[in-house]
Specification:
The chain is built from five helices and eight strands. By secondary structure, the protein is of the alpha+beta class.
Length: 209
């Protein structure tokens, strides 16, 4: 069973901007641009029935689209840094969407996520790189600020447990509604599955209008 997590995709234009930060830190393992994403809820290895239940519950979410913005680059790990990340602004719509994913996982019997949610895009793994080297890199590049984007959907990804940083497959995706003036509800979108994901994992397959 693949390792699962939910998240938001990073648009190609922003991914290109983030890719310009690569380099200048010997020992860092840079994430491929096509694997940039904002993790909402790490799920892990689950059985097929639980995966089906998660997909079903995710399909019931009704949320409007919202803006996501990069607000700088930082390191995770304190004195022993392990990752370089582009920090994402903690806006109420983003935090509420993540909280809904967390509630779904807990309702289905998965353990609560022990870590506080800090939205980010991982751009490099730097385990084993000195704190001083990371601090120098951040002093030169930490002021990066990317433009905002508005995700059109949230995604259920899978990854191979033995390979950090991708490649990731889209197992299922569900739309975020375009806000409608004067409407108190959310547009009802149909869950969709990327063709390659449907072939690999048919339990998520649904017809596409």
């Amino acid at each position: 069973m693949p390792r699962l997590f939910t998240g938001l995709e990073v648009p190609e234009s922003l991914g290109l901007s983030l890719s310009f930060l690569r380099g200048g830190l010997p020992g860092a393992k840079w994430i491929d641009v096509e694997n940039y994403h904002v993790t909402l809820r790490f799920i892990g290895d689950v059985d097929e029935r639980t995966a089906d239940d998660i997909a079903e519950e995710l399909s019931r979410i009704r949320r409007d689209r919202f803006e996501v913005r990069i607000e700088g680059v930082m390191a995770f790990g304190g004195k022993q840094p392990h990752s370089l990340v582009a920090k994402v602004s903690q806006t109420p719509p983003l935090m509420e969407l993540q909280a809904e994913h967390e509630r779904i996982c807990q309702r289905l019997g998965l353990p609560a996520e022990p870590r506080r949610f800090t939205p980010h895009v991982t751009i490099a793994r730097c385990k084993g790189v000195s704190h001083e080297a990371v601090a120098t890199w951040l002093a030169l590049r930490g002021g990066f600020s990317g433009s905002a984007w508005t995700p059109e959907r949230f995604v259920l990804f899978s990854s191979k447990a033995s390979r950090g940083g991708g490649p990731y497959l889209v197992e299922g995706d569900w739309p975020l509604a375009v806000p409608r003036l004067g409407s108190m509800g959310y547009a009802r979108g149909q869950s969709r599955v990327a063709p390659i994901a449907a072939r690999l994992h048919p339990r998520f397959a649904t017809s596409v209008a």
